[in-house]
Design goal:
The complex is a heterodimer of chains A (197) and B (468).
Chain A (H helix, E strand, L loop, with lengths): L8 E3 L1 E4 L6 H4 L19 H4 L21 E4 L11 H9 L3 E4 L4 H9 L3 E4 L2 H13 L5 E4 L4 E4 L5 E3 L4 H9 L3 H6 L2 H11 L1
Parallel strand pairs in A: 2-3, 3-4, 4-5
Antiparallel strand pairs in A: 1-6, 6-7, 7-8
Chain B lengths: L4 H7 L2 E3 L6 E4 L2 E4 L5 H10 L9 E4 L16 H17 L2 E3 L9 H7 L8 E4 L13 E4 L2 H10 L1 E4 L3 E8 L8 H12 L7 E6 L1 H4 L3 H9 L8 E3 L4 H7 L8 H11 L12 E6 L6 E3 L7 E3 L12 H14 L14 E4 L1 H4 L2 H11 L9 E4 L4 H9 L2 H7 L25 E4 L14 E4 L2 H10 L5 H4 L4
Parallel strand pairs in B: 3-4, 3-6, 4-5, 6-7, 9-10, 9-12, 10-11, 15-16, 15-17, 17-18
Antiparallel strand pairs in B: 1-2, 2-8, 13-14
Helix pairs in contact in B: 2-5, 6-8, 13-15, 13-16
Classes of the chains: A alpha/beta (197), B alpha/beta (468).
């Protein structure tokens, strides 16, 4: 089943310079009751975005119209905790196409890749530089080029290269998912089952 | 090259390996619950395909179910819809479901081992990060996302890069009053909440070996709290004794044959790990967390670290968590007032946990300021607690057993700790809002939770149960 293909993005970015942003913050468990993949963006970072009376919390970055864009930039160890793919869906549903951090939790990273959300892992120094660039100008643009695996800071022209598994890269660029691939392996899987017994 | 326990199981389950690509890994057992599966079943419907191996797929309802009046229709309409959807999908796709009124219903990671579905050498997945629990049996078990649930339903396989290997060894004798939960909270406080990311852990050493199967499950359960893909322990006599006679384990001669194979599941002495940690059991004391990630734990008699003590990069996190928790740096934990205790979850909702609580509170009374939620991990645990008189002991001490489910561990149902209240919880995560918006969670062992329930404040459990 095909997904949206990942194309090169040029966009401003939204900074969230906090470490250990866990999936319970990204989407609290009480919002996991839906049986579809859509609509989770509404409750993205719910308890940081809104106070207990459901009033937007002015201090939180998603409520600050100064910061917009397709790229979310988070602190180290982004997406730790629960395996809920709803966390990746919520970020994607909110309109982000890319999450940048110096370190991602494993399950979150897989979930993001499987949901069409590109996780870009860069060094702590580069992450710092990106936070600084956004801080000095919230209009700073970044180019994400998956084909060449680069994240470019537009004003300085600095290109930061990033790693991605080649198979996952192909999937993202072409909008393939793993299930298509696995279904095509049916005979190999059956042969394995015979020998595995 | 000599293989680790992890290598032996992983390598024997690789259907297809292409260099630099994720491996195609065959899955022996797929556990399913109501929250992370509906979208996956819907995906199968959309593609017009069946569940590939329904006989290797087991479903239950746990995350979202009420823990009182389970015989009545679920009041929360969204929760009811999730449970109804799972029921409908299981019927349609021929998957066994242990639904709310089934005698085997319970938390997915409690029932798998209890029924003998979980066995050494298996690959086991579930759309839940605490799937690592099953690693206690010498299985490769890990949590997956919903897209991956769909892959496994569709093909019984998953695409996964092979993780790195970590060995965590705890040698020596644990002192009295120190439980499996303390061991794992201690380890996480040392390794940190991200130190295990990219790794699969094998726990070894005499202190680990000395743990019961249920204690081992508690340790493996929290591997994910270090960021690890999973944790495992090589099977031994304790494992085989636990499994013998369980309903879905091999029976009779088949069991003995299986044991012969299971005995081969260990890391070769010269097998290499990518990273190793060694801890001394004698240094472990009852532990408690003070912050908002499971790595923020200290010995219960200890103090919260000062801002200067932590790495620069962790200062913000520490300050933010202390503000959330209403604590000050360098505070002592002992004597702090508590409002709730929660005993339950896939970490500590098994029969031994309830036995431990019952033993600690027998003949005593719950403090008036404490609201206690004690939630058995499964219907079978509940039944066993009734049979052993545990329920009675708890009631005499002023506690009441609720009905099985994940409950206040993630507060999807009504079991929410109110904002600003302090809960000593035997669950696995103390994240902001995890147990309810604004709830303040302190993770500890069932023994510590019991001691706190009696004294009404944070206390060294060894004092309450007369160990000191």
């Amino acid at each position: 089943m095909s997904r949206e293909k990942f194309v090169t993005i040029v966009s401003t970015a939204v900074p969230l310079p906090m470490e250990n942003v866990d999936t319970d913050q990204i989407i609290p468990a009480r919002f996991l009751k839906a049986t579809t993949r859509e609509g989770f963006g509404e409750n993205l970072f719910r308890d940081w975005r809104y106070d207990s009376n459901n009033k937007p919390n002015a201090d939180f970055v998603l409520n600050n119209s100064k910061f917009l864009g397709d790229i979310l930039v988070g602190g180290k160890n982004f997406g730790s905790g629960s395996s809920r793919e709803h966390a990746a869906w919520a970020i994607y549903d909110h309109g982000f196409k890319v999450v940048v951090s110096s370190f991602f939790a494993d399950i979150f990273k897989n979930n993001a890749l499987n949901s069409g959300l590109l996780p870009i892992q860069i060094s702590e120094d580069d992450l710092e530089e990106i936070f600084n660039a956004i801080e000095s100008d919230s209009k700073e643009k970044f180019e994400v080029d998956l084909t060449n695996q680069t994240l470019r800071i537009q004003s300085s022209g600095k290109a930061i290269s990033f790693d991605i598994n080649p198979y996952k890269k192909e999937c993202m660029l072409n909008g393939y998912d793993d299930i298509d691939y696995l279904i095509n392996l049916k005979s190999e899987i059956e042969a394995f089952e015979m020998s595995h017994r | 090259m000599s293989k680790t326990l992890f290598d032996k199981i992983w390598d024997s389950h690789v259907v297809k390996h292409i260099a630099n690509d994720p491996d195609v890994l065959y899955i022996d057992k797929h556990l399913v619950h109501e929250v992370t599966s509906p979208q996956a079943f819907a995906g199968l419907e959309k593609r017009g395909i069946k569940v590939s191996r329904p006989q290797n797929t087991i479903a239950t309802v746990d995350h979202n179910v009420p823990t009182i009046d389970q015989h009545l229709p679920i009041k929360d309409q969204l929760s009811k819809l999730q449970v109804d959807k799972l029921t409908e999908y299981c019927e349609k796709f021929g998957v066994t479901l242990y639904g709310l009124n089934h005698p085997y219903q319970g938390i997915v990671h409690v029932i798998g081992p209890q029924l003998g579905h979980t066995q050494p050498g298996m690959t086991i997945v579930c759309g839940d990060s605490h799937t690592s629990t099953h690693g206690a049996f010498g299985a490769i078990a890990f949590g997956i996302g919903t897209s991956e649930v769909e892959m496994v339903l569709a093909t019984q396989c998953i695409m996964q890069p092979k993780p790195n290997k970590m060995k965590i060894s705890v040698e020596g004798d644990l002192t009295s009053g120190v439980t499996a939960k303390d061991v794992v909270l201690y380890i996480i406080s040392k390794v940190s909440t991200s130190g295990g990311t990219g790794y699969f852990i094998e726990f070894t050493g005499s202190a680990i070996r000395s743990l019961s199967m249920e204690g081992r499950m508690t340790v493996c359960n929290m591997s994910i709290e270090m960021g690890a893909r999973g944790g495992m322990i090589a099977p031994d006599e304790s494992t085989f004794t636990y499994l013998r006679g369980r309903e879905f384990a091999p029976q009779g001669d088949d069991f003995d044959k299986a044991v012969e194979n299971w005995r081969k599941l260990y890391s070769e002495p010269d097998a290499l790990f990518d990273k190793e940690f060694n801890f001394d059991a004698a240094d472990i004391e009852p532990m408690i967390t003070y912050g908002t990630n499971p790595g923020m734990g200290v010995k219960i008699r200890g103090r919260i670290p000062s801002i200067g003590e932590v790495k620069d990069s962790e200062r913000n996190s520490l300050e933010k968590s202390l503000a959330y928790m209403g604590f000050q740096a360098e505070d002592e934990l002992i004597g702090k007032s508590v409002d709730y205790i929660f005993v339950g979850s896939c970490t500590n909702g098994r029969i031994e946990d309830l036995r431990e609580v019952a033993k600690a509170v027998k003949g005593k009374k719950k403090a008036n300021n404490i609201i206690a939620w004690i939630v058995p991990g499964s219907k079978q645990v509940e039944e066993q607690a009734n049979k052993e008189g545990i329920t009675r002991i708890l009631e005499d001490a002023g506690f009441k057993l609720r009905q099985p489910g994940c409950s206040a561990c993630l507060a999807m149902n009504d079991d929410k700790i109110p904002a600003g209240k302090y809960a000593v919880s035997t669950s696995n995560r103390n994240f902001e809002g995890r147990q309810g918006p604004g709830a303040r969670t302190m993770l500890a062992s069932p023994l510590t939770a019991a001691a706190v329930a009696i004294s009404g404040k944070i206390v060294d459990p060894r004092e309450i149960v007369g160990l000191q």
